[in-house]
């Protein structure tokens, strides 16, 4: 089948996960074209040369460590005219010699609009839809309620009336009855490199921070005696006592993730999913005002895989480290057969669409 695959450019998590599915689709014999933006476009274009078109996407704006709603809206409004012109040019390019039979969207809008304009069925594959289509098993505190309401509204409005929703997740929840017929929960997408890694238990803690303007992180970690931290996110190669800053290296990061005793990170879905897959306890400190990150962190604590904190402090990290045996025991029960469940469901959905056509 001819497939258009939409990948958002915000961060690299969507790109690394989508890359796995795109490679599988090509191996299955499908003709796939991809639209994406920013760093995600660069990564995907390098991996699938000649198949990726660059569009102008939506980006979040930060103030200190928090997502700024006002700055994000302002950034979107300023960039909208040029984004529309660029995306219209790419739309015309797509129409020339390529007509998708199916659109797969990883929470990306351009491909969805393309599908609706040409009346092409849409398959949604992402982790975000769990916010609106499943019944949460954690209590949302009052201070998170507004973020929850906003996130649920945006998720519902993003890809309405898709043919099917495949929701990738490391925590299984009951679906809301109204959504159950066209929704399937599948395990998180795990990169082949992570599947091939052999987990061991080292004596260091892996730290990954996307909000690299937290300038006091090194000082905080230095206050945890006797514990080594290997920190990614600042793209530096420096030693500060027990804190080692690591330059960007995908192979190096995977090796140190497989060999660490535990992970300290924000609430990003990809790393948490990979840590759970490798049975690594997670200390999760989500970026404020990002409900999806809050939910990932809350579910880590709910399942006993780690601890959810609002801030990184020496006391919080020490408390987390003191509970590692309990987290390791809980993670020992987590089992996942790579991406086979996702691939089986996607193959069935595509076969059904081909039969209808």
TrEMBL record:
One of its GO terms (molecular function) is glycosyltransferase activity. The keyword Electron transport does not apply. Transmembrane segments: none annotated. Pfam families: Glyco_trans_1_3. The keyword Ligase does not apply. Coiled coil: none annotated. Keywords: Transferase. It comes from the Bacteria. This is UDP-glucuronosyltransferase. It comes from Hymenobacter setariae. The lineage of its organism: Bacteria, Pseudomonadati, Bacteroidota, Cytophagia, Cytophagales.
């Amino acid at each position: 089948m001819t497939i258009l695959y939409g990948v958002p450019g915000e961060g690299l998590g969507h790109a690394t996960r989508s890359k796995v599915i795109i490679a599988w689709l090509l191996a299955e014999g499908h003709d796939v074209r991809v639209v994406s933006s920013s760093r995600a476009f660069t990564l995907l274009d390098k991996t699938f040369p000649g198949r990726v078109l660059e569009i102008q996407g939506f980006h979040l704006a930060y103030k200190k460590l928090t997502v700024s709603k006002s700055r994000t809206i302002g950034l979107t409004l300023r960039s909208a005219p040029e984004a529309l012109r660029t995306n219209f040019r790419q739309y015309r390019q797509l129409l020339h010699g390529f007509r998708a039979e199916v659109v797969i969207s990883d929470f990306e809008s351009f491909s969805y609009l393309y599908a609706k304009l040409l009346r092409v069925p849409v398959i949604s594959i992402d982790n975000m839809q769990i916010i609106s289509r499943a019944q949460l098993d954690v209590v949302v505190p009052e201070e998170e309620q507004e973020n929850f309401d906003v996130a649920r509204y945006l998720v519902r409005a993003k890809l309405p009336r898709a043919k099917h929703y495949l929701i990738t997740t490391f925590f299984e929840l009951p679906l809301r009855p109204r959504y159950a017929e066209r929704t399937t929960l599948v395990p998180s997408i795990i990169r082949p490199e992570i599947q091939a890694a052999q987990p061991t238990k080292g004596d260091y803690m892996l730290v990954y921070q996307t909000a690299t303007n937290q300038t006091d992180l090194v000082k905080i970690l230095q206050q945890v005696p006797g514990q080594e931290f290997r920190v990614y996110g600042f793209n530096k190669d420096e030693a500060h006592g027990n804190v080692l800053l690591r330059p960007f290296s995908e192979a190096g990061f995977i090796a140190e993730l497989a060999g660490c005793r535990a992970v300290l990170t924000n609430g990003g879905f990809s790393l948490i999913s990979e840590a759970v897959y490798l049975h690594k306890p997670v200390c999760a400190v989500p970026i404020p005002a990002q409900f999806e990150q809050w939910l990932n962190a809350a579910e880590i604590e709910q399942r006993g895989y780690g601890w959810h904190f609002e801030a990184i402090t020496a006391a919080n990290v020490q408390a987390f480290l003191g509970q590692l045996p309990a987290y390791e025991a809980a993670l020992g029960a987590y089992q996942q057969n790579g991406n086979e469940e996702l691939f089986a469901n996607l193959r069935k959905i595509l076969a059904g669409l081909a039969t209808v056509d």
